[in-house]
Design a protein that fits this description.
- 2 copies of one chain form a homodimer.
- By secondary structure, chain A is an alpha+beta fold.
- The first copy, chain A, folds into 3 domains: 400 residues, Glycosyltransferase; 94 residues, Immunoglobulin-like, CATH 2.60.40; 118 residues, no CATH class.
- Chain A is 34% helix and 17% strand.
- In chain A, strand 6 and strand 7 form a beta hairpin.
- Chains A, B: InterPro entries: 6-hairpin_glycosidase_sf, Beta-AFase-like, Beta-AFase-like_GH127_C, Beta-AFase-like_GH127_cat, Beta-AFase-like_GH127_middle.
- Chains A, B: It holds the Pfam family Beta-AFase-like_GH127_cat.
Chain lengths: 653, 653
Amino acid sequence: MSSDAPPVVRTGQSPARPTDAATVTSHPLGLDRARITGGFWADRQRAGAEAVRVGHEQLERAGNLHNLRLAGGRTGGGDGTGEAVGPVFADSDVYKWLEAVAWEYAREPAEDLLERQREVTALVAAAQQPDGYLNSVVQLRSGEAGRYADLPWSHEHYCAGHLIQAAVAQVRCTGDRALLEVAVRLADHLVETFGEDRRHDVDGHPVIEMALVELYRETGTPAYLELARYFVDARGHGLMASYGKEPTYFSDRVPVREATTVEGHAVRAVYLTAGATDLATETGDTALLATLDAQFSTMWATKTYLTGGLGSRWDWEAFGEPYELPPDRAYAETCAAIGGIQWAWRMLLATGEARYGDALERMLFNGFLAGVSLHGTEYFYVNPLQLRGSSQPDENRSPAHGRRGWFACACCPPNVMRTMSGLAGLLASTAPGVLSVHQYATATLDGDELGLELTTDYPWSGQVRLEVTRSSGRSTLRLRVPGWAAGATVTVDGAEAGPATPGGYVELERDWQPGQVVLLDLPLTVRTVTAHPRVDAVRGCVALERGPLVYAFEHVDQQPGVELDDITLVPGPDARVQHEPGLLEGVTTLTLRGRPARAPEEYRPWPWPVDGGAPVPGDEVDLVAIPYYAWANREIDAMRVWVPLGSPGGTPS
Amino acid sequence: MSSDAPPVVRTGQSPARPTDAATVTSHPLGLDRARITGGFWADRQRAGAEAVRVGHEQLERAGNLHNLRLAGGRTGGGDGTGEAVGPVFADSDVYKWLEAVAWEYAREPAEDLLERQREVTALVAAAQQPDGYLNSVVQLRSGEAGRYADLPWSHEHYCAGHLIQAAVAQVRCTGDRALLEVAVRLADHLVETFGEDRRHDVDGHPVIEMALVELYRETGTPAYLELARYFVDARGHGLMASYGKEPTYFSDRVPVREATTVEGHAVRAVYLTAGATDLATETGDTALLATLDAQFSTMWATKTYLTGGLGSRWDWEAFGEPYELPPDRAYAETCAAIGGIQWAWRMLLATGEARYGDALERMLFNGFLAGVSLHGTEYFYVNPLQLRGSSQPDENRSPAHGRRGWFACACCPPNVMRTMSGLAGLLASTAPGVLSVHQYATATLDGDELGLELTTDYPWSGQVRLEVTRSSGRSTLRLRVPGWAAGATVTVDGAEAGPATPGGYVELERDWQPGQVVLLDLPLTVRTVTAHPRVDAVRGCVALERGPLVYAFEHVDQQPGVELDDITLVPGPDARVQHEPGLLEGVTTLTLRGRPARAPEEYRPWPWPVDGGAPVPGDEVDLVAIPYYAWANREIDAMRVWVPLGSPGGTPS
């Protein structure tokens, strides 16, 4: 197979890079043409840059690199044997980290990154088998006989997928083709091994689908796209059942083309749909795209937390029933938010619809960002929307594994790294004569016809200044107006240029001149939202949002004696909005009035707790809310996003 | 060690039979002296009698008996080797079934039961090793080397415990000592093997504690009580951690004597506390009893469902945080309700407090009874308080494994059998000069000084007629007045004999004469209850109770087009109460007014579902509720115990 890139293949440092032949409405501006230069995300990315460095130490400590050294004969007896450590998918953490290194290098080149990349790439290359097979854990634990022996659990394609994604990122960002050669050998091995007319089987954990389409985009080799098509279509026909597995968990109960919603393991589900979206755009399969669009809408409406978190069940890390969205037991794995972002980004490129930009923004600022500490080096695996003050310390006080530097199952940390470093790739996209800005940050955008410099205090301020730095004549600038931005306005050189209708794009076609200034003003009204009435778990509760941020009440910010487990919000004047530069690296807080819940007349289905459980109505107090993403950076104690709405009288509604 | 019963040992066919030396306030009336002769529970027990017969076929089909035959050399090569089938605790299902056979024989003697008992007991005896060790699965799978090699998971003491309980029941009910001899050999082997000065270790799953105390009660051998004491005290000091296990799940995080609540795996937790209660009463350990009393109260107030269901988490089948009681994801394993009943019964004997009789009744009529079908031969493993109509059929429509004839993990079915057959043992207890009636059924009670014939339509009617059939002179009759029975009255031969204060016992000291009639009238007012405000999952909701029964709305009983997922109850006139002899083998239904929930003004944190998710306010409709225990006997569809309380205007509170 040829690995020369045919003319249809684009260049550019994008995490997802459709070919010119793809049926997308626009193509992403890569990291080479979209750069975050300051503000909110620049701070997060600085922390992320440090995290990438620490990540290498973590991979060393956890033994992931050791596995590769053993398998490659670089240590131990030198014969490629030895005791593998960690989970069967240990290699994937290395690959996700390598991908992060590539995006990080594109974001801010540094020699130490290239050195690390060369070192680790060499380990990976050495571990690869002559026929292209590569999975250090399987090689060490069960050798050739173990290959693909337990696909539902072995994660062999999953690891291959992450390797391919890393290799593609490496070529795009550093030009180094060493890992790509490994990836191509592995992909060719997969092509020779799997398919309708070959071994008819799929991996238990999707990601290979996205990866193979990207490898096709990078190399132009049709066989990779075809194999991705095969893996997407082979699912949902009971292959997992042939291993005696319950298929739902593996997204194998219903074929992707027939599914009406997402179900089962949340990360698997959205990785699969994201890959299917890549497939649909590269094959011009509008029917498949329409199905995926419906699936996303249903997921968003019935199985998505306010934070954009996905997956409500701890057991099997799964999506629950429609509207089964308990805030306290939300699983909302950080990796699921990342998969959701990847899917939304692909749907946005395909459809150009603002709601995907809105969804991506909600997941980015909340469900995703809460998964990493402000220092950038500690992570949540699980992201609940409520933690009780009555939680039992040793058992449950820290949700899931808590915010930790690493996990035995370490999928989330390197996933956060690659997402954070590659973030600029999600800001904007281009089409002939059009530059679309989807996310707002202080940044420079180098579009086909238009260069822009963005300046903003977003998300603390809703004002975005876009100055034209380069223009090749007449073109259209499209700016997303978030669905929440009621009353948004846009001016060009001070002149009203609206309408700026929320939930869409304002389109400014001009004969742009350098120095022209566009001002987008998105009013950051504090929004009090309630859930669909079928979301039984938060009945009678409200949550607070401002701009793209979901807010949360954290125990440490409340007056002494205020128990978040018992409070209700008192409806009344708007929240007091205050930006506090010294708090949590600078956040805007909301202050509202609340009081302890009053006990209803009769609520004694069972005796009271020994300590007397009925809260007595208390006086009004101030309650302070912080952005959800910033919780658990000071202590782990009571936190809640949804709060019961009381009445001025204090009786709970 | 002697196995002669010293004088302190009582006789009588009781599931839990304290010695005369035990610090209990009363002793149970065994099945030989308490007989259910008609009414509600007689119907349930008839179904149970059939289920015990079917149980033998199930054990044959599932391979549990096959394991014992192999281990005993009764089949296969005859050398005690072969391929064991099923879970490592497979033997315990046989033992629980053998225990059920014993109680069933006491309830209604039948030759076929004795034959089955002799057959299966012979299999068990043959499988026992010369030194007394017995666990067919461990013997077959890993032989002598496998003994106690993985106590956290091997369930070896757990199986031993159930064997002992069966053996004790067999002797008490049939006089056959064959299984007791096996149990004694096994218990002696455990005594020789485990203890502070021997192997210092505990089983991952309690039950051996209860069993050893009962074996002591049966045989009078102090070593068994001492070993029970050891197993109770050895827990909570990190023995599980020495196996690398997280201790909470195994009730091993905190010593029983220091615990303030229950946590971890629900069944393990309450089996342990029930055993600790037996230990406390037989050793006169009032401090331990006080601790257990506080633990029960905290469990009841903060970790117990309205149905008496225990354990809110599917992951690890565990108790959740205090007040973490989601109705939809309630785990509430049937075995946990049974363990709760066993604990409450022991606490009732120890303390004589009516609240334990109330708790037992709530668990019995709701959390326990819902676990078995009206036919008696199909079971729920998990007992949620809500099932959505929007549940996805193939995935989640049937809660947990659904109501099935048997399970791969078949702990619940034989546990239901032994509880149902032994039920009469929970009705009443005696103390010198006192007969206490704790539960009401049509039955005969043969107390020390007093014989009674009870006639009642309980739980459909609250009127209980007690006629004296025998009296040896002056004695006190104590009748539990449930906490819910406001306005209860009691008469003797028509004369007011009150006060009958709810939540206590009415005490009637008389020179009783045969023919005298006591009438207890417990008003079955329909009660609308709400939960503690910290139970976030049911905020703004109410549930309905009548007498001991919790009610539920099931889809099949509603008018066409009524979606239980969307309804609210309309406050207004009392529910219409109607007894329907033809429905679900005769139930009293409640009819109330409700309407679809109205959508609040703003509840759009995310777009609507494609199919349009916002219910429009609808007209009032009748909503019909049935007793919770009877749900899922016609179809599996939407069901809910907790329903949002609307307002006359229809806006949801």
